[in-house]
Amino acid sequence: MDTIVYQGLTGLTAAMFLWLVSAGLTIAFGVCGILNIAHGVLYMFGGYFLFTFYQLLGLNFWLSILLTLISVGLIGLVMELGFLRPIYKEPIGIQLVLTFAFVWIFDDLAKLAWGPVSKIVAMPRFFEGFIRIVGRPFPIYSVFIIGTGIAMAVFIWLLLDKTWWGKSIRASALDREMASALGINIRTLFSGAFVFAAAIAALGGALSVPLRVVGPGIGGAIIVQAFVVTVIGGLGNLKGAFVGALIVGVVGAFCTLYIPVFEMFIIYIIMAVVLLIRPQGIFGEIR
Amino acid sequence: MSKLKRLLVPKRIPFVFWVTLIIFLFVIPQFSGKYTIYMVMSILIFSLLCLSVNLLLGYTGLLSFGQAGFYACGAYGCGKILLIFPQLLPGIIGGVVIAGVVALILGYFCVRHTTIYFAMITLAFGMMVWALAMKLREITGGEDGLGGIPRAILFIHSLNMEPMENYYYFVLIISLIAMFLFHRLVNSPLGLTFKGIRDSESRIACTGISIRNTRLLCFTIAGMYAGLAGALMAPLETRVTPVCAHWAASAEPVAATIIGGMYTFAGPLAGAAIFFLLKDIIVRFTEYWLLILGVIVIILVLTLRAQGLAGVLQQSLFSRLRLNFEGSRNERSDIKH
Amino acid sequence: MRKRKITGLVIGLAVVLLIMIIVSFVPVTAAPPLKQLPLKKEVIKIGGQGIFSGPNAICGRSMMEGARLAIEEINAKGGILGSKIEFKYMDCELKPAVGIKNARYLVGEWGADFLIGHDSSGVLMAVGGVMPELKKILIGTHAATANYNERLVYREKNKYCFRTASPTYQDATIFAKVFAKKFPEVKRWASINCDYEFGYVNLALFKRAMKELIPDVEFVAETWAPFWTMDFTPQISAVMAAKPQGIYTSPWGGEGVQLARQALIMGVFEDPNVKLYINCTGETSDFLMGMSNEIAKDKFHGKLWVTGRYVLTQNDLPINKHFVKTYAEKYAMYPFHCTEGAYSAIYLIKKVLEKSRTLDVEAVIKAMEGMKWDTPSGEKWIRPEDHQAVYPVPIGRPVMDPDYPLMPVVKDLHWVPVKEYYRWPPFEPSIDEIVKAELKR
Fold first, then answer.
1. What ipTM goes with this model?
2. Reported pTM
């Protein structure tokens, strides 16, 4: 029993990173209608900028995170204005190829800027140590991650449900023309939504670095999992993204423990099963 | 220019052009080095993979980001057969059949979805093949892959495929046959059905044709072409590893097809050659080849858009002006090769 | 108008591409052989391949740096018998197909006389397999699979393959030999291993050696992690659930760093039950630098043991001191076994060519077999039966040492005579049989 609980919590931690990236992907897709493979790149930059601010420049941890969110938000803005806006109207094939080319370019730019060697960040002093869960040491940092993930979920839900901006976003996602007819500036809204999505992904990347490493190519690895999560949860649905991330993270952790052979492709099997039973994803709507 | 749509309809590429190209391909080994032969073979194999992508994308409107999965099925299938029974043709045919069967099974899940979901699902299924290849060590050799695949004989011992030149002719002949069959397919009534599904599903449904079954048929045939490419690769490299099923490997033929032009027959072929040569040349000069290749791909795709290089060249070199007042979607059906 | 501009751009691009294609099709012509030079060539070309991207990018880079260092030194002193050396490196992208393609290009088009490098065992085996077709010598400088020397060279008689870096014997058996004597009370072992050949072979060899020395040893948990694993917490958690006393790990480079950090975070080293943690290739610079803070603060409580294919503190030879000093001055860090493997490969080529006095491949192979030469690791000997360099390397614990200010180094060295932990011909039972017997994979 203890092992199950402990392993489940381990999986939950991994799920939170997935959730943050998937949330950003879902918002970008739901609002702007663009399937952005390069979203994983923003996760990677989140990690790199935290490394720069916190490790290289030695700033305060929380300040570094704030600066990271701002920096990657800016990169997201540039990405949206410069690269994505011209291709909104293109057929999906071209969108995917272009965003894929962005991944190549940004991976190499990261290699140029920070060097090819993977970077690590020391764990902040106040997060060192662990608490005892079911008699085994569970890192405090992981508790922090789980807490942040859930807090972000609540925050995003509040934002989209209660605020005017959130309602505009949902309106634009549902019916762009009507929202624009009501006087909502679609272009600014798109940029704003995308910057927000970029910041969320960057948060995921920044928080992952004390636990993992950051290097060119980590964006590509996480985006595939984020895709599977959004398909399972339902494209364009945030609740689905959260649940999907939970499923993928926790089931993956259990597999490592009990059926290691399945560990790599269990998420695809889950995806296939979900698609068989409910083709639009667990919470998705048939559009 | 709002209502008036000037459409430059490209004429057929002259038969002479194809004949010259084929003669050139047959003659290349006589005057060029081993590496060039190897390169041309790799381009031919890559072209088959691009044709596979385009059958789905350009002709039926379905973007598949997982064709590398079927490529891997063909490669592993051929490899396993050759390791047990070193006869080339059974290996190749076996690989194609295996890829086709897998495509049929996976296709059942995929074809119920449209564009975006279809792309994501095929990507994930391609990765599933990759994960299976990595984990099922007893069958696939795991991460290290299947090694020591012989470049087996063709029926009799005197037709030894070991020397690069002999295998080159084999690959060339098989590829030409496959491309010819592809051409016949897309210009057949079935090909018209595919194009119809791409342009207007509702109209096709009115004719009583089952859209899902047609899509599934298209998916299976595309899977077989990808499998053929993989099966031809296995004896060439004598080793198959899971990385050939990764989604990054699926994205390359998609990029190449779009660069070459997804609405023409020659598009994927031209795109395959250009993409492969670009990558091969850039890699020799810098370790930052991803950056340069990415930039070039973006420039090419943004300037050429949906037409691709072949489309643009055909329009400018072999075209006649024709004014057309109808909507743009119908006109795409007119674009032959 | 726009159509014309696009057409113009496209035709321009097509012309540029056509020129590039024509240029690339022209085979590189070799320099005309000069009668005065004994090797009859003005420039000896050496091609190297390694990993230049991803978490282990440092390996390819170090290979290049080590090779370049040696080549600069040799060229400055007049080259090899008057012929200068030229070096070119390519990224194998961890893909065997790319490795083979690059090898064909380097030998066929660029005119390489020797190929060196390789960090991935899979790529090394693949490229080694085509060397008989290319008829040039490949010298492995890092990738450690024992199948390279035992199967390719010894059993399949592929004489074109050599290796200057120690094989997987270095990662496994030597630890068993040391710990059976020094820590005989550690009997419960668990493992976190690479889910590819490297990991299978080390664990199998380690298990077999431990079982021979400590009959009641138990292996309570075996977990596996494929390449590109970033998050080892599920594996660590599964291992700790089994309450081990010793943990054997093989993920290397950047992955080794992550694994160690995550293990620290999850309290593995604070657990009084856990006495030993092995990172079998922890002597790499990225691992030591990555862990320098933790090592300085003694977070590992002396439980972390490492080795490598070269440990810079293993001897005081002038060639080693010079190697470390020159490299440190240039790159502000210390060299490790990827660097040393390439450095010694270049010097091996030099000594062999000076002996054979010809580039004829058969003669060079004969000269290389049995060759002894001086390297920063000490004297290495190419065993003629399997073309494998044989030389001892100790295991030890990483610490901060005031003599080596740039980063932690390995000290508290324990040696085992090379005869006791290397495998020797006829290599019975075969590695694959041992893997099958010891692991359920």
1. 0.82
2. 0.85
